Amino acid sequence: MIKAENIFKSFGENEVLKGISTVFETGKTNLIIGRSGSGKTVLLKILVGLYRATSGKVWYDDVLFSELSPKKTKPIRSKIGMLFQSSALFDSMTVNENIGFPLNMFTNMTSSEKQNRIDEVLERVSLEGTNNRFPSEISGGMQKRVGIARAIVMKPKYLFCDEPNSGLDPKTSLVIDELIKSITIENKMTTIINTHDMNSVMEIGENINLLVDGHLAWKGHRSEVLRTDNDILRDFIFASPFLQKLRSKALSNTSQ
Amino acid sequence: MILKFFHHFGRYILMLSKAVARPEKFSMYWKETVRQMYNIGIGSLIIIALISIFIGAVTAVQFSYQLGGTMIPPYYIGYIVRDITIIELAPTISCLVLAGKVGSSFASEIGGMRQKEHIDALDVMGLNSANYLITPKIIAGLTMIPILVTVSAFVGIMGGYLASVPTGIITEEEYVRGTRSFFEPFNVYMMYVKAVVFAFILTSVSCYQGYYVTGGSIELGKASTNSVVFSSILILLADYIIAVILTG
Question: Which domains does chain A have, with CATH numbers?
């Protein structure tokens, strides 16, 4: 479980987060959604420790993460995996080397143990046999899957995903969403996904947090989204006329 | 302006203090250091040799012109080429060239990693990114640049020979006599002091410019340019200070 307590964050005069308090539950896909500029990425970076909040606290289970010195965050960091928006794969390394990087750096595993673990996670993301290819030689969707493989290779307890579907086609997005969801359940992880992909919201949103102008405007399960009377949420999720029509149709079908 | 200077200076010191830490895993850092040593050393060898040969050659030709019609014996050309190459031209010109070649590549490499979230990825893993990315580059610079400066001094003196002996300006015997006259070992010490100080300046300043890059490709280009400009200015300033301290 990860808990954010009254998080404020300012960049100079610009106050981006204005008192966010929420809980991200273990074994669930927790979503942070909101318009561009609503503070999603800033909140995610505060949760993961890349930014320091102006005020407020971040708890990882019973550890007050936000108050720890960089050295003391190491035990927690070893349990964190993160998938970046750009995948952040090292260009000069092969897929095998990218995934093996945390193992080489932080473990004393033998070469064969490391290779077994790399092959295991590559199989989990359905990319067997791509070990010797470079990031530039694989597609965007495959890069995301390599990013996921690298994020889970150390068997993390906490998984962060920053816009995992950006730049992907709807079908590949679905594959990535399903992969993140199943990995979360299998490993009983606390997964936090920052997204503005509405398919993700409706497919895997178990604990959705809607940010509007730095405030938490709504929190709930995807099943509540369709029938919500929250105008802000409705305007955000069903923004296009097409989705509005779909929603009306779905509601009329369920009421009949 | 002054505030900006202190802001950058403070951040530069903070970055260096972060970079000086015990490596997470020695073997990984060693691999990275060797990679950087290869890039700096082998990657810059030809350009340094090429520039040095011309530096020596031009120095010899210019001095033979200056000495023409004077009472100074011609073998002084060898002596002057040797000393000016060792004391000034080999360390300073080589490091100015390396600031352009190595410095800009460091700034672009680290800046690109910042923009592609590679540095964030390292930080999230719990790795000290400054330590992993900057320390191997500084160590590689501090080891390889003095070697390149040594090569530069040797090739420079050879360049003086090639420009003055085969062309008939002086005889081989005179040139060799000149290069062996009035030798002061302290000058070699001064060359290495300069090489080490300049190496530290050009590697650390370039890494600083790349490490804190923000924005897009224009900012990355600016960081690369700034790394060359600031390294060059600081190298020339340090050159003056070292000259004053060591010869004063």
Answer: 2-79+156-255 (3.40.50.300), 93-154 (no CATH)
Indicate yes or no: CB of A105 within 8 angstroms of CB of B28. yes
3-state secondary structure of A117: helix
Percent of chain B with pLDDT over 90: 85
- Which residues in chain B have Cβ-Cβ distances shorter than 8 Å to A166? none
Q: Are A195 and A83 in contact (CB under 8 A)?
A: no
Determine, for residues A86 and B25 on separate chains, whether the beta-carbon distance falls below 8 Å.
no
Integer Cα distance of A150 and A147 in angstroms: 5
Distance CA(B197)–CA(B27), nearest Å, equals 27
* Cβ–Cβ under 8 Å, residues A134 and A94: yes
| Cβ-Cβ contacts under 8 Å, A74 against chain B | 126
Question: Does B21 touch chain A if contact means CB atoms closer than 8 Å?
Answer: no
* Burial class (CB within 10 angstroms; exposed 0-12, middle 13-18, buried 19+) of B214: exposed
> Residue A166's pLDDT is what?
84
User: A55 has which bridge partners?
Assistant: A8
Please indicate whether, in this complex, the C-beta atoms of A88 and B24 are within 8 angstroms of each other. no
Residue B25 has its nearest CB partner, among A74, A84, A105, at A105
Which of A45, A91, A102 has its CB closest to that of B125?
A102
**Residue A207, strand partner residues:** A30
Secondary structure of residue B123 in the 3-state scheme: helix
Lowest mean pLDDT among A108-112, A114-118, A166-170, B99-103: A166-170
Q: Which of B24, B118, B124 sits opposite A82 (nearest CB)?
A: B124
**Is the minimum CB–CB distance between A110 and chain B shorter than 8 Å?**
no
Please choose, from the candidates B131, B141, B118, B121, the residue with its C-alpha nearest in 3D space to the C-alpha of residue B17. Answer: B131
- The tens digit of pLDDT for each residue in B173-212 reads 999 999 999 999 999 999 999 999 999 999 999 999 999 9
Residue pair A208/A24 in contact (Cβ under 8 Å)? The answer is no
User: Pairing mode, if any, of strands A29-34 and A207-212?
Assistant: parallel
Model ipTM? 0.87
DSSP classification of residue B165: T
Query: Tens digit of pLDDT for each residue in B142-156?
Result: 999 999 999 999 999
Helix, strand or coil, per DSSP, at residue A25? coil
